[in-house]
Amino acid sequence: MKHKDHKRVKKAKKDKKRSKTHRDDSKKSKKRDKEAKHKTESGPISSDPEQQINGDNKQQTEPVISDFDVLSIYADISKLSAVERYLNMLYRPFTCFVKTNCEFKLSELDCFLSDTRYEPDKHSALLIRLSSPICSLRLYDNGNICCQGYSYDSAALGIHRFIGTMEHLGYSPVFQNPKFNVVNATFCMPFSIHLEQLYREYHEDCLYNPETRPYLTYQIRNSSIKLAIFHVGYVYVLLSSQPRFTQKAIAFIMPILFRHRAANRPNVAELSSGDINFKLLWENEFQNAYQGTLKYSR
Questions:
Q1: 3-class DSSP state for residue 162?
Q2: Which CATH architecture is the domain 93-180 placed in?
Q3: How far apart are CA 260 and CA 235, in angstroms?
Q4: CATH superfamily of 86-90+182-291
Q5: What's the N-to-C CA distance of the chain in angstroms?
Q6: Where do the H-state alpha helices sit in 103-179?
Q7: Residue ranges per domain, the chain?
């Protein structure tokens, strides 16, 4: 009797084990079918890491920028950032720099003034933010002050109001000949420019002497803004007073640059923009040449 019971128990265990194995096989089969279906829908997964990276990059690729997008650069806001990257567009803040005859105690001013930050281990200047006008200042202990604003006027007014605050705190700052940045934006066209043809068509608005300068200067009518255009397609926007005037000048010059694009010249943006030394060299040149054009006004 015991022997028969033992056989029944043993048989029940075998049946239970066989049923469990069948369920596991069924789950594995469903999993394989699901993976196969996913591969069929999404395509084969490459074992090459480089191909996988390229696949990820394709999903994050920038939208294709056409000539029309560049010509109408500020018309479609959804494409503006992509167009600006395509042109290597860099905007400069409006900056006013002055030297005073004072020596400031930055740690004390950090306590007296609001909305400041002073971290001498990281930066030698006291950083100050003003709300009226909206601007930021860097104050150095040797008396130098640098103010960056959203326009020429806000940078100048920020300096003026901060000087007034210093006078209330017992300082007597005196400064002469404030300096403003004259380069407001730079960008690089994806092609070279035929400067001679451009000059012939717009000679009344241009200055061009290739024997003395490798660029053409285009004066925007009824405006203080000038554009320095190099034959490689690199352009400096100079002497603007507000961001909207800078953008207006860029939008104005685009069709002119396209009409005078040069043939048989390299159109690689990296080559056209030049290296950092090239950019800084001419930026300093323009700063020295046009510094006297900008006058400080309270």
A1: helix
A2: 2-Layer Sandwich (3.30)
A3: 14
A4: TATA-Binding Protein (3.30.310.10)
A5: 115
A6: 106-112, 152-168
A7: 86-90+182-291, 93-180
Residue 288 CA to residue 181 CA, distance in Å, equals 10
40-65: pLDDT as tens digits: 444 444 445 455 445 455 445 667 88
249 token code pair: 């000048």
CA atoms of 184 and 20, how far apart (whole Å): 75
For 76-104, what is each residue's pLDDT tens digit? 899 999 999 999 999 999 999 999 988 99
Please state, in angstroms and rounded to a whole number, the distance separating the CA atoms of residues 58 and 42: 14
Listed in sequence order, the residues at least 6 apart from 245 whose beta carbon sits closer than 8 Å to its beta carbon are: 223, 225
Cα separation, 57 vs 205, whole angstroms: 45
137 CB neighbour count, 10 Å cutoff: 23
* Nearest-angstrom CA–CA distance, 251 and 231: 19
150 close to 131: Cβ distance less than 8 angstroms: no
Q: What is the pTM of this model?
A: 0.74
